[in-house]
């Protein structure tokens, strides 16, 4: 039987080994590729940089992550599919795509309309037990979730005229990500939702193939959408959540201390990413109005819009026990 003194000595030695620079434990770092679709000023990219930075602080020299931004290895959906397939080790992707690609819908929780109030509320939920359960729920899809962040609250950008009342959404050809949740939300609001890839939004607004796009400020700035869309209605209907996911067979083959470091880096990098997102969101609004010719307006009857989409929460709560649990936690009723 191991004595208490032996156990403490063994535990201390293991902790000291993990804290040592990786060069003391191996000859070269483990190399990983991380792909995403955003540009370098977008919070989606900052989330990966903060993750990379946190990992280096936790396990110095242990892992070398090469980040591929700007759709270099594929668009959002392709990056997720490649991570599931193991073609790349890590993907930073829109959380709502996970249900579409894998059938695991619990990550939809973060994008239910008018459920998450603000960036601080998002941070609290991201650190909660239900979020870890949602990460664990990805295992059958061959993924390990290590980070979830809000890369920008969504609002409504139009080309021809501002939307100031809920009934003015009616019939507007509105770009959405072509997933069931978004289709349900925007049909409930009254728009004519059209699924388009992210990279086609600028051209579609410019040629008036679409009238509007539900979008975050960071994407308006990063994709120069202010050149073609001129009216921004502040609705804040839901966050745009991005997740960092690792291919599970690859993750399972890593040393245990590296697995632990990846999970911890995901948690540690959440707060600085949210701080960047919030600062860019609110700071860029002034730039859009003062220098980019955007008119920003409020929705005069926001409660009416909220009421229209409430049935979507009820419908989605039936799709997964974890979604129902998340809704209760977000509403403070768990």
UniProtKB/TrEMBL annotation:
The keyword Signal applies. GO terms for biological process: transmembrane transport. InterPro entries: DctP_fam (IPR018389), TAT_signal (IPR006311), TRAP_DctP (IPR004682), TRAP_DctP_sf (IPR038404). Pfam families: DctP. The keyword Transport applies. Signal peptide: none annotated. Keywords: Signal, Transport. GO terms for cellular component: outer membrane-bounded periplasmic space. NCBIfam families: dctP, TRAP_S1. Belongs to the bacterial solute-binding protein 7 family. This is TRAP transporter substrate-binding protein. It comes from Microbaculum marinum.
